[in-house]
Amino acid sequence: MTRREQATDNGLTYVRFATFLGMLIAWSPALPAADYACGTHPAIVAPCFELRGRLSFWNGTPSARIWRVGTPRLLGIHHDELPPDLASRMSGFDTEAWGTFKLCPFTKERPGRMQFVCIESWRDVSFRQRPGAT
User: Fold this and answer.
1) 18 with 54, same domain?
2) Domain membership of residue 92 as a residue range
3) How far from chain centre, in Å, is Cα 28?
4) pLDDT at position 1, please?
5) Number of folded domains that form the chain
6) What CA–CA distance (Å, rounded) separates 122 from 82?
7) Which positions ≥6 away from 121 have C-beta within 8 Å?
8) Average pLDDT per 10 consecutive residues for the chain, totaling 134 residues
9) Residues 57, 83: one domain?
10) Which of 3, 65, 122, 133 holds its CA 20 to 30 A away from the CA of 78?
11) CATH number of the domain encompassing residue 84
């Protein structure tokens, strides 16, 4: 077999494998998303509370944070886990979600420290692009 024939044969093998893999993925049943549980999580340290704020992504850990309107305080989203319906609307670092959030704390509030929370529910949320975003 010449090099040209061998290259063509290898290319066909790749195309066959890619086609098989695509068909396998298309025909496989969809896996259910992991259940999102916030308010029932055993690590919650205090009662859940509501606040008006802005959810957005930042550099650093945690990336997902909520700014409480009217304060300089940022609350970190525990393990960056957002409820699936909310996560699907957050398209990246330039998206902000403004609304009323019901949050459940994983840590107690302490001055000078970021408090970690999860989002139990949300309402009256509007999604915007950050000013200056391209």
Assistant:
1) no
2) 49-129
3) 25
4) 62
5) 2
6) 11
7) 101, 102
8) 56 44 35 69 95 95 96 95 93 93 96 96 94 70
9) yes
10) 133
11) 2.40.50
